[in-house]
Amino acid sequence: MRIGLFGGSFDPPHRGHIALARLAAERMGLGRVLFAPVGVQPLKRDRPQASFPDRVAMTRLALAGEKGMELSLIDAPRADGRPNYTIDAVRTLTAGLAAGDELFCLMGADSFLSISKWYRSSDLLVACDFVVASRPGFDLSRVAAALPPNISVASKDTQEGDNLVLCLRNAGRRESRLYLLPDLRESASASGIRESLQQSDDARGEVNPAVATYIREHGLYKEGREL
Q1: Residue 155: its pLDDT value, please?
Q2: Where are the chain's structural domains?
Q3: Could you tell me the pTM of the whole model?
Q4: Apex CA 24: angle with CA 22 and CA 88, to 5°?
Q5: First CA to last CA distance, the chain
Q6: Domain 2-217, architecture per CATH
Q7: Beta 175-181 vs 163-169: how paired, if at all?
Q8: With contact defined as beta carbons under 8 Å apart, do 56 and 37 qualify?
Q9: Per-residue pLDDT tens for 24-35?
Q10: In whole angstroms, how far apart are CA 116 and each of 81, 93, 128, 139, 148?
């Protein structure tokens, strides 16, 4: 089975997240997509506005009825208080794969642009294959330019169906593949949704109705609310 790991704050989970997962599942033949809300995001200076339990609850609601998509707690807050690092989640999942299973790390192109700042990014990029989705018009050359210095592109502009593929190689000559999906037709953003919800209870239809109800009933994303 092909399995996708989709990590993030999911603060809140919105239709853009679901659209990315659907596109990746369709193009890559994924049997499962694991949505993993992150406990402590190491690169973001500000903590998520919603608590981890709230983000888990909203993600569970957002995935209800979505075939092949499920919640994972692989990136739950650590007992020692350390940040959550994607490479730890990837290695834990990889160690538990059955023979013949493949793991793919899913993310949006905007998130991938900061990959060189991620913890042990050179190891992470060859620990599994990546699927990076972008909206039409995104300059895909920015993805290659975002790679850390010790990751080289072994070959590029390989086409597999509708997917563009980069073959990555680290200094130890370990390789992986990065699949670029350039036609994600969804522009919802969590920051925009949070900003809108500070002023009203209207999520502009960008979240699942059950998630919108949860946000309203729990008073999330209102100014002055403490976690």
Answers
A1: 61
A2: 2-217
A3: 0.92
A4: 110
A5: 38
A6: 3-Layer(aba) Sandwich (3.40)
A7: antiparallel
A8: yes
A9: 999 999 999 999
A10: 23, 22, 16, 18, 5
